[in-house]
């Protein structure tokens, strides 16, 4: 039996039935945005229409296809663009060849540039250049773009062009290499990488399907290239619905487009609708969230739930169904160690975070733990000072969190197994995702968006707001983090400090 629409959902349905143009829906945490889009899909006539739901990833698209009417396609941006590339004459001859999609395409291009710039130079800037080239694609930049645009990306995304962590200024040559690498990339169509699926589709003006109705999920996380492609997907008199939550935009520290929702509203001239009822959270959690986002509402007959600060807590009280959230990584690593010593199953979300820690340890090239600690201390102090001098508070905070995480691991090593190799092994064991769901999950709040649990612990809440959040946009991000954290709870929300867990 289908669920009756809320007053907010009904308003959007009425707009689709009776009005024209595009809409943007400001959906609060747990407000049934996917259900709303499914309701809208049911309103789209199967006669004379071509409709699609653009989901955040393949898993969501696959699940949605089971819920959507047959005449509405569930897809990702990348799958739609791949279809268009396969139809383009310049790509058709390669599209069906084995190995056409190569994740290391830019890596291989940089290898081919050794003779021009020298292997030492390429290796020093390789990681930063690969990141920059990817960002150039995401922002629809050409190789000949203005240098100021590239420097803005370098600063915003905190890109380093130094392989050994030294203060070597390779920026000028790195920008030149990035331009040339992108130019080669654009002329090399016998292989494509993940970023190319969107970028080359835009660059080559590949024949995208024109939709009469298009629904876009997670609109707050779209980037420039996606918005440009959406414009090309809309047929004449097409209708588009974008759903997102500005208050869950928490990735500006990575350079994400924190103004995506406003850009969509302006570019596509959208009517705006709220979707305010949280079907996830109990009343007490909603009341807490309302201090941050006043217009979030509890559903009718929602349970009261529990919100409580714990003065003491036993480690044994955590269950494998619990979710533990923290602003920073280091307290999670310390807690995870305590789980392991107590023989309790635990996992820390974020394999890439683990790999970044491993990379930093390897960058120090230390022979033993004492040398590793000394080099880490010198490196971190130098880089934090440099970051703060440039007003790059996000980088300074990330460096300190990585430093404290590695020190926590060093401190926790047993006396009979204290080596740099052991540090790397512990990091990888903590941050691995082996699919075993029978472990307590520890996660930074940044990693927890989209997650939920009946019992959620917010660890070391005093870390929010971050002391490094000095700029207005950073302070907004800190507020959004609190909102995301508290709205993960289905029933019980505890605030607990590391020092009181026994």
Can you give a write-up of this model?
This protein is an alpha/beta fold. The chain folds into four domains: 7-83 and 202-275, P-loop containing nucleotide triphosphate hydrolases (Rossmann fold, 3-Layer(aba) Sandwich), CATH 3.40.50; 103-190; 306-350 and 438-502, P-loop containing nucleotide triphosphate hydrolases (Rossmann fold, 3-Layer(aba) Sandwich); 351-432, no CATH class. Helix content is 47%, strand content 15%. The chain has helices at residues 7-18, 33-43, 58-67, 77-87, 89-95, 105-111, 114-117, 119-138, 147-156, 171-187, 194-203, 224-233, 260-268, 283-289, 330-341, 351-364, 369-389, 393-412, 420-430, 472-486; strands at residues 22-27, 51-55, 72-76, 211-216, 234-244, 270-275, 277-278, 297-298, 306-309, 323-326, 346-348, 440-444, 453-459, 489-496. The strands form three sheets. It has a six-stranded parallel beta sheet. α1 (7-18) runs parallel beside α2, α8 packs across α10 (171-187) and α16 runs antiparallel to α19.
């Amino acid at each position: 039996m289908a669920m009756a629409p809320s007053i907010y959902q009904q308003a959007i349905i009425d707009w689709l039935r009776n009005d024209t143009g595009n809409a943007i829906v400001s959906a609060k945490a747990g407000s049934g945005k996917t259900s709303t889009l499914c309701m809208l899909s049911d309103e789209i006539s199967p006669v004379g229409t071509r409709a699609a739901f653009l989901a955040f990833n393949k898993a969501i698209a696959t699940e949605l296809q089971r819920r959507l009417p047959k005449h509405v396609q569930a897809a990702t941006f990348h799958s739609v663009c791949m279809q268009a590339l396969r139809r383009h004459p310049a790509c058709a001859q390669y599209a069906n060849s084995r190995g056409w999609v190569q994740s290391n395409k830019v890596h291989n291009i940089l290898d081919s540039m050794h003779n021009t710039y020298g292997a030492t130079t390429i290796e020093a800037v390789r990681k930063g250049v690969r990141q920059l080239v990817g960002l150039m694609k995401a922002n629809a930049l050409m190789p000949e773009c203005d240098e100021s645009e590239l420097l803005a990306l370098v600063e915003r995304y905190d890109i380093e062009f130094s392989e050994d962590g030294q203060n070597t200024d390779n920026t000028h040559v790195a920008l030149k290499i990035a331009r040339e690498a992108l130019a080669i990339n654009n002329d090399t169509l016998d292989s494509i990488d993940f970023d190319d699926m969107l970028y080359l589709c835009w660059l080559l003006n590949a024949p995208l399907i024109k939709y009469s109705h298009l629904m876009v999920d997670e609109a707050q996380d779209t980037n420039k290239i996606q918005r440009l492609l959406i414009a090309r997907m809309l047929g004449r008199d097409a209708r588009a619905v974008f759903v997102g939550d500005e208050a869950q935009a928490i990735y500006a520290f990575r350079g994400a487009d924190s103004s995506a929702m406003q850009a969509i509203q302006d570019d596509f001239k959208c009517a705006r609708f709220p979707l305010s009822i949280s079907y996830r959270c109990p009343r007490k959690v909603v009341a807490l969230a309302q201090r941050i986002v006043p217009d979030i509402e509890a559903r009718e007959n929602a349970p009261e739930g529990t919100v409580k600060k714990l003065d003491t807590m036993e480690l044994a009280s955590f269950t494998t169904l619990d979710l533990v959230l923290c602003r920073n990584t280091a307290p999670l690593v310390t807690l995870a160690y305590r789980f392991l010593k107590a023989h309790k199953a635990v996992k820390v979300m974020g394999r890439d975070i683990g790999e970044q820690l491993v990379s930093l340890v390897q960058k120090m090239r230390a022979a033993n733990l004492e040398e590793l600690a000394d080099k880490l201390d010198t490196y971190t102090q130098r880089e934090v000072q440099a970051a703060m001098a440039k007003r790059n508070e996000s980088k300074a905070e990330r460096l300190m969190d990585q430093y404290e995480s590695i020190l926590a691991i060093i401190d926790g090593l047993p006396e009979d197994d204290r080596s740099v190799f052991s540090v790397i092994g512990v990091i990888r064991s903590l941050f691995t995702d082996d699919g075993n769901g029978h472990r307590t999950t520890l996660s930074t709040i940044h990693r927890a968006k989209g997650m939920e649990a009946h019992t959620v612990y917010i660890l070391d809440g005093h870390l929010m707001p971050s002391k490094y959040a000095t700029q207005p946009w950073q302070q907004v991000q800190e507020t959004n983090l609190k909102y995301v954290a508290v709205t993960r709870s289905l029933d019980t929300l505890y605030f607990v400090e590391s020092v009181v867990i026994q």
